[in-house]
Amino acid sequence: VATQMRESMIQNPMPTRAEVSDGATAVLDNPDAVMLSAESAAGSYPIEAVQAMARICLGAEKHPTSQKSSHRLHTTFQRCDESIALAAMYTANHFPGVKAIIALTESGYTPLIMSRLRSHVPIFALSPHRATQARASMFRGVYPIAFDPAALPADKVSQAAVDELLKRGLVEQGDWVILTKGDSYHTIGGTNGMKILHVGDPLVG
């Protein structure tokens, strides 16, 4: 969403009430990103404008309506990877204890579909491709990580993916995570499986 959401802050250090409301509404519409333009590029208070935008975004994302979504709950799915992505998000929003979603992805399509559903659970897009990592960084609630499952034995992939989050401090022992992946790698659209994993337990596959 790129609108003049803080236009008054070109000349003033504080946004108007209407601008705060507009910014929060934009976040609740579930975009991948919001953007300032003149406020930060040519305004007199660029730092204050960015700080105000950040506060409003964080506040709006804490609202209950931002935590769960009924998006496409009553529609037909068209693809296998799409079905897995939506099933993972439904599970994440309804299974207490899930702290992260791991999507092993070639093109970024699976985390893209995931990002369209509101959730408090972060999505980590693990891919060996820089272009996919860059694309996924623009999706709402998605965080790319360089990871090549094809370089590992097939029975070590799940453990290695969870360990990647563990070593970064993104999950802890005892957390639940959801992992989506395909039977083969370097295949676009190949995601066909979902696992619910308990961090700390021995993992296979």
What does this structure look like?
This protein is α/β, with parallel strands linked by helices and 205 residues long. The chain is built from seven helices and five strands, in the order H-H-H-H-E-H-E-H-E-H-E-E. A five-stranded mixed beta sheet has the order 3-2-1-4-5, with helices on both faces. Helix 1 crosses helix 3. It is elongated and about 60 Å long.
What's a concise summary of this model?
The protein has seven helices and five strands. The chain is α/β, with parallel strands linked by helices. The mean pLDDT is 88.
Question: What order do the helices and strands come in, and which of them pair?
Answer:
Layout: H1 17-28, H2 38-41, H3 46-61, H4 80-94, E1 98-104, H5 109-115, E2 123-127, H6 130-136, E3 142-146, H7 157-167, E4 176-182, E5 191-198
Parallel strand pairs: 1-2, 1-4, 2-3
Antiparallel strand pairs: 4-5
Helix pairs in contact: 1-3, 4-5
Q: What is the rounded Rg?
A: 19 Å
By CATH reckoning, the class of the largest domain would read: Alpha Beta
- The neighbouring-strand order within the major sheet is 3-2-1-4-5
Low-confidence runs (pLDDT<50, min 5 residues)?
A: none
Number of strands: 5
What overall geometry do the principal axes of the alpha carbons give? elongated
Helix content class: 25-40%
Assigned CATH architecture of the largest domain: 3-Layer(aba) Sandwich
Largest sheet entry? 5 strands, mixed
Number of helices: 7
SS class:
alpha/beta
